[in-house]
C-alpha cells in the first residue's frame, strides 16, 4: 500500500509527514514538558520508526523537535516516580520488573540503529539524558545553534542505560571528554559536540536543519535502494562491534546477492 501519513495521526505529540518522495519526517512536539518522554511516548516512538522501516515508499527518516527550546529534556520524571510506587516487595520480582522495563525501553530507543533505513536527527536546544540515548542511534546528527548536551543521568543517581554509554564511545573521538561528561553529568555545547565528532554539521535553526536533512534524504533516494540500506547496515554493524573480517564477508555476500539479481549499478 502507498505510504499514508494519516495512518500515523493517532500518536499523541508525534506528527509524521514527508519532506519529499521517499523522505519521511517525524516530529515530536510536547512543549509543556520540553519534549520529555513518558512510557507511552517512547513506546510510540519505537513503533512509529518500526512502521516507517516497513513502508515501501520510504527510504530515509528525518527526526526533529517541534519545541524551539528542546529536542528532549529526557525521561518524564513523573513517569519514573509512578513506576517506583508500584514495585513488588520481593527482591527477585522487583529485579525482574526493572530488568524487563529497561529492556523494553532500550529496544524502543535503539530502533534507529536496527532498522534498514538511515535516520537523520536534528538536535536543537536541550539534549539531556534520554535525548542523547535517542540521538546516538541515528545514522546522522545535525546540531542547531544554541544546542546543549548532557549525559545527565548521574545527576539523578543512576547510570545512563538507554544506549548513550554504549554508542558514544564508538561515534566520538575523545574518550577522556566522554568520561568527563558521563561522570560529571555536566553540559557541553555545540562547538564541543562537533569537535568530538558527535555531529556532522551545524545549522542556525531547526527549519534550516530540516531543509538540509531533506536535501540529503532526497539525494539518498536517487541511489539504488539496496546500496543505501546496505551501506547503512554495514557501517552500523561495525559500530556495533562486528569485526573487520566479518564485515568484509557480510558486504561481499550482500553485493554478490544483489549483483546476481541483476540490479543495475
UniProtKB/TrEMBL annotation:
The family this protein is said to belong to: Belongs to the enoyl-CoA hydratase/isomerase family.
CDD domains documented for this protein: crotonase-like
Name assigned to this protein: Enoyl-CoA hydratase
Entry-linked SUPFAM superfamilies: ClpP/crotonase (SSF52096)
GO terms of molecular function: delta(3,5)-delta(2,4)-dienoyl-CoA isomerase activity
Cellular component per GO, a single term: mitochondrion
A Pfam family: ECH_1
InterPro entries with a match to the protein in the record: ClpP/crotonase-like_dom_sf (IPR029045), Ech1-like (IPR045002), Enoyl-CoA_hydra/iso (IPR001753)
Amino acid at each position: 500500500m502507498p505510504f499514508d501519513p494519516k495512518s500515523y495521526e493517532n500518536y499523541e505529540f508525534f506528527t509524521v509527514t514527508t519532506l519529499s518522495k521517499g523522505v519521511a519526517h517525524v516530529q515530536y512536539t510536547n512543549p509543556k514538558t520540553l519534549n520529555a518522554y513518558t512510557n507511552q511516548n517512547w513506546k510510540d516512538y519505537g513503533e512509529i520508526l518500526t512502521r516507517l522501516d516497513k513502508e515501501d515508499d520510504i527510504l530515509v527518516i528525518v527526526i526533529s523537535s517541534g519545541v524551539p527550546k528542546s529536542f528532549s529534556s529526557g525521561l518524564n520524571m513523573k513517569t519514573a516516580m509512578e513506576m517506583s510506587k508500584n514495585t513488588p516487595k520481593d527482591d527477585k520480582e522487583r529485579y525482574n520488573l526493572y530488568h524487563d522495563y529497561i529492556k523494553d525501553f532500550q529496544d524502543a530507543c535503539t530502533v534507529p540503529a536496527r532498522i534498514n533505513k538511515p535516520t537523520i536527527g536534528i538536535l536543537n536546544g536541550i539534549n539531556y539524558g534520554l535525548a542523547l540515548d535517542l540521538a546516538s542511534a541515528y545514522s546522522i546528527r545535525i546540531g542547531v545553534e544554541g544546542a546543549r548536551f548532557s549525559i545527565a543521568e548521574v545527576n539523578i543517581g543512576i547510570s545512563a542505560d538507554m544506549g548513550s554509554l554504549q554508542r558514544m564511545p564508538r561515534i566520538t573521538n575523545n574518550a577522556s571528554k566522554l568520561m568527563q561528561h558521563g561522570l560529571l553529568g555536566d553540559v557541553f555545547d555545540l562547538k564541543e559536540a562537533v569537535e568530538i565528532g558527535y555531529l556532522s554539521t551545524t545549522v542556525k535553526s531547526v527549519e534550516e536543519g530540516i531543509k538540509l536533512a531533506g536535501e540529503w534524504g532526497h539525494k539518498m533516494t536517487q541511489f539504488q535502494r539496496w546500496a543505501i540500506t546496505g551501506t547503512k547496515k554495514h557501517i552500523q554493524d561495525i559500530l556495533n562491534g562486528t569485526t573487520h573480517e566479518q564485515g568484509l564477508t557480510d558486504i561481499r555476500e550482500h553485493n554478490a546477492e544483489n549483483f546476481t539479481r541483476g540490479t543495475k549499478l
